[in-house]
Design brief:
Elements lengths: L4 E6 L4 H11 L6 E7 L4 H4 L8 E4 L3 H18 L7 E4 L9 H8 L3 E4 L5 H19 L3 E8 L9 H12 L5 E6 L5 E8 L4 E8 L3 H20 L5 E3 L1 H13 L1
Parallel strand pairs: 1-2, 1-3, 3-4, 4-5, 5-10, 6-7
Antiparallel strand pairs: 6-8, 8-9
């Protein structure tokens, strides 16, 4: 039997982190072995173990995630080891331009995958928008995005809404984005294309946080395998890179 990949979880006390931890602890179907769960309060206890895993799943906040990545690079340099850095899945959103610098530094030395949403259907919507944004522009449609989340969500607009908007902005068709924070809404995104004659509405509504937890663990598995296949490699990946492999896994 193939040995499971060693996983470190960052952000274990958050909503998504807790859901990921529960899936791992209550199912043996994942080719992942949870080595540690880190949050701000216990980080000093596990800091020196960061290099011991194959892949790190980060679902905390950019400031804490930046600290983790900085420490990973420093520990690796100090160790003098030629072994590969752990692959890192970055799931936090709301990174500033300054904070993005550490992402560029890490991807130059190790494998990094950045995701603003771990739902396969959201990934499919991203692909659709990248492939068809020019169609909406040429046909004269006006885009808008409405995103709704629970009241504890800090970043606004959501990272998912900004990702949806990017291919539209890139062709000179920036959408109007509205953000709503209410109750315990897990996450709803509505992309609307309006013309004088009709309206096209694309809607994604999450009913369970396990949707994102499964997607996050599938993504961590894919990135760990990618690292295992090329221990001297490095680079940045996105959810689009993982979609086919994750569909195959769910079909098994």
């Amino acid at each position: 039997m193939t040995q499971p990949f060693k996983l470190g979880l960052i952000g274990s006390t958050g909503k998504l982190g807790s859901a990921c931890e529960q899936l791992l602890l209550h199912s043996n179907s994942w080719p992942l072995q949870l080595e540690f769960s880190i949050n701000r309060s216990n980080y000093s206890q596990y800091k020196n173990a960061l290099l011991s895993v194959d892949v790190i799943l980060e679902v905390s906040r950019p400031d804490f995630a930046g600290t983790i990545l900085t420490d990973l690079l420093a520990l690796h340099s100090q160790s003098g080891s030629r072994s590969a850095l752990p692959a890192v899945v970055v799931g936090s959103t709301g990174w500033s331009s300054k904070q993005n610098e550490i992402l560029h530094e890490y991807e130059a030395q190790g494998f990094l995958l950045i995701s603003t949403n771990f739902s396969p259907m959201v990934t499919l919507l991203n692909i659709f928008l990248k492939q068809n944004a020019h169609v909406f522009k040429h046909l004269g449609y006006s885009p808008s995005i409405n995103e709704i989340h629970h009241v504890q969500k800090i970043d606004s607009p959501s990272g998912t809404a900004l990702t949806f908007a990017e291919p539209l902005k890139n062709i000179g068709l920036p959408p109007k984005i509205t953000s709503v924070r209410e109750g315990a809404v897990i996450g709803t995104h509505v992309i609307t294309f309006t013309s004088p004659d009709d309206i096209l509405e694309l809607r994604h509504e999450a009913h369970s946080r396990n949707l994102f937890a499964r997607g996050a663990l599938e993504t961590a598995t894919w990135l760990a395998q990618t690292r295992s296949n090329n221990l001297t490699g490095s680079g940045r990946f996105f959810m689009e890179d993982t979609l086919s492999a994750n569909i195959r896994r769910r079909a098994e």
